[in-house]
Amino acid sequence: MSPLGASTMLLLLLLLLFGQSLSAPRSFSVDYQGDCFRKDGEKFRYISGSIHYSRIPRAYWKDRLLKMYMAGLNAIQTYIPWNFHEESPGRYNFSGDRDVGHFLQLAQDIGLLVILRPGPYICAEWDMGGLPAWLLNKQKIVLRSSDPDYIAAVDKWMGKLLPMIKPYLYQNGGPIITVQVENEYGSYFACDYNYLRHLTKLFRSHLGEEVVLFTTDGAGLNYLKCGSIQDLYATVDFGPGGNVTAAFEAQRHAEPHGPLVNSEYYAGWLDNWGTHHSVVSSAAVAKSLNEILAMGANVNLYMFIGGTNFGYWNGANEPYSSQPTSYDYDAPLTEAGDLTDKYFAIREVIKMYRKIPEGPIPPTTPKYAYGAVGMKKLQTISDALEKLSFSGPVKSMYPQTFTELNQAFGYVLYRTTLPVTCSTPTPLSSPLNGVHDRAYVSVDGVAVGILERYKAITVNVTGKAGSQVDILVENMGRINYGSGINDFKGLVSNMTLGRDTLTGWTMYSLSIDEAVSRGLLGEKERKPTAPPQPAALSLPAFYGGSFIIPNGIPDLPQDTYIKLPKWRKGQVWINGFNLGRYWPARGPQVTLFVPANILSTAAPNNVTVLELEEAPCSSGPCTVEFTNTPILNATVTSHYKQHRRLFAKDDLL
Q1: Which of 366, 334, 372, 308 shows the shortest CA–CA distance to 579?
Q2: DSSP code, position 205
Q3: Chain centre distance of CA 571
Q4: How many of the other CB atoms lie within 10 Å of CB of 338?
Q5: Which end of the chain is more exposed for a tag (fewer CB within 10 A), N or C?
Q6: Is 134 exposed, middle or buried (0-12, 13-18, 19+ CB in 10 A)?
């Protein structure tokens, strides 16, 4: 054979071998004999971080994912909140900030694998743990169980979601290496193994037999007893500072062989209104992370970036205490994606176990202080009622819940009259603690008090028979963990005046977000009146203002934070985008994150505030302020104390 022929044959042989390697199927599996994962046949360990696309504007997904990749992570973990995509039955939304497919593709393009947690229940300090509120249309429904009504809804949702997810599985060329079934089920009272078996079969039917399905539970045998089941790989979660070996021994009880996995290693912790801002030291996080990695275990840092509960998406814990708008979580990347000392401390630990990507880390995004913006009073809720209640009044003998009124979030106005003259202060009460969650009470247009779930169930009122009683009820977020997730909102039981039950209610569902985005809340014409006197409370009312992004400054608009000095509690919209709740009077959060993508350089930026208790406008400067510095750890003014330990969920059962 000539030298040319020999080289040609060699080239053909190499091409054949190379072609075979290209066509080799991708695989990801559990190796029980080797106590590890196998990726394409090779031993594999993931070091992952949690990021929730639903808490970060799409415009910033790439920035946050790149920062995670440059920290040395080789995977991310994310939840899919069912209620974020199906707010009403059969109406699905996977566009814009809800485009989970785009998020998964971005992760893969950057070089990150994905651990997917599609629920149906996710917890996540998210409203109702991700379950849609319309499930409560069946009042007796047992959520997270074999209840036929619940199963039917889950089957339909997963029948929509899982086929969309299947192309992104690692075996199919995508980034998803493992998929969680349910979430921390061992912490739930139902302990329904048939439910878990049904979900396992459902996931397999849509995703196939090859995908690694897993469960996550607290690192204790009492959790794993009801949370783990055959055919789902059991993993655990625990935070820094504890006994790492003992925590993994709990997993070994359920899984004698296979990889060690901490699916939620807590790099920070959650906040509640009226409690101190949670802080977990970088040193503690780094120390326990090193111990976990030294054991060869897989780990996911929860959260690596927390983000923001925009709009009404925050959850709540029991006894009822809702989470604030910020989900900063004291994470390695702040709510706004800023690099922290904790980020670099974690990066140094990861460096000891795998090669860190070379190149510059994307910098912290710049912030700009746009300054003070003057605000004018527009209209009270009562003034604007016709513009806010698109569906019109609903009349009934007794008050109806948000669910009965077909409203998921926000506010409902309940109206009735005093049946008798109350010449002396008479208790208006919710004796069965039926105000879910906070109510602003007025009589004949005068604010008289606030009712609050578990904290204030009575206010005293005076007035003549026939006086109009308005009770504006705010849904502060549904319970997301424990037995109380079937959390009905509104007036969920009768109100009494003295000993008598109030009847003859008219209810107005308020579509405030739509009214704000459509610009329906103009300033009301007012006749000149005497200067108002400072009061403890005023009627819930809207305030408006605008500001222009300065010219001549490069790279504007930039991210900012809005601060509401001397405002007490309410909701904020910028250019129709619902930033979330503010409550500086209770703390610890004072500023709200304003991402640059909602700001405009082409037109004035409109700021709308719904102040529920008392705006500063009657007694001094009526302004909001845009600053470049967040305040998430202000003094807490609530006397309501929660006895909770960091990283402990057992007190929420």
Answers
A1: 308
A2: H
A3: 16
A4: 18
A5: N
A6: middle
| Tokens encoding 595 | 């991402």
Helix spans in 436-519 (H): 512-517
Q: Is the pTM of this model over 0.90?
A: yes
Residue 335 designated active-site: no
Q: Is the dihedral of CA 78, 82, 86, 90 positive or negative?
A: positive
Phi-psi region of 355 (alpha: psi -120 to 50; beta: other; left: phi over 0): beta
Q: Which of 224, 178, 194, 184 minimizes the C-alpha distance to 78?
A: 178
Answer whether 68's CB lies under 8 Å from 305's CB. Answer: yes
φ/ψ (deg, to 5) at 39: -115, 115
Dihedral angle of Cα 311, 314, 316, 322, to the nearest 10 degrees: -60
Contact present, 397 and 586 (Cβ < 8 Å): no
Please tell me the distance from the alpha carbon of residue 542 to that of residue 571, in angstroms, as a whole number: 9
Query: What does the pLDDT look like over 541-599, one tens digit per residue?
Result: 999 999 999 998 889 999 999 999 999 999 999 999 999 999 999 999 999 999 999 99
Query: Residue 174 corresponds to which tokens in the numbers above?
Result: 């995508």
Instruction: Inform me whether the pLDDT recorded for 16 exceeds 60.
Output: no
Q: What is the DSSP string of 301-362?
A: EEEEE--B--TT-B-EETTTEE--SB--TT-SB-TT--B-HHHHHHHHHHHTTSPPPPSPPP
264 is catalytic: yes
Q: Which two tokens stand for residue 592?
A: 């709200």
Q: What are phi and psi of 358, to 5 degrees?
A: -85, 160
Structure tokens at 134: 């319309």
Residue 301 forms beta bridges with which residues? 49, 265
Arithmetic mean of pLDDT, 430-446: 97
Q: Does residue 239 have a pLDDT over 90?
A: yes
Buried b (16+ CB within 10 A) or exposed e, 528-560: eeeeeeeeebbbbbbbbbebebeeeeeeebbbb
Q: Which amino acid is at 568?
A: R
Q: Per-residue pLDDT tens for 146-159? A: 999 999 999 999 99
- Residue 582's DSSP bridge partners are 570
For the chain, what percent of residues have pLDDT higher than 90? 90
Sheet holding 500-501, edge to edge: 458-463, 422-429, 496-497, 500-501
User: CB-based burial of residue 13 (10 Å sphere; 0-12 exposed, 13-18 middle, 19+ buried)?
Assistant: exposed
Q: What is the pLDDT of residues 390-400, one digit of tens each?
A: 999 999 999 99
- Annotated active-site residue in 86, 125, 182, 184: 184
Q: What is the mean pLDDT of residues 279-291?
A: 98
Task: Pull the structure tokens for residue 7.
Answer: 């080289």
Rounded distance between C-alpha atoms, residue 306 and residue 80, angstroms: 15
Contact 59, 595 (CB under 8 A): yes
State both tokens at 517. Answer: 């985005």
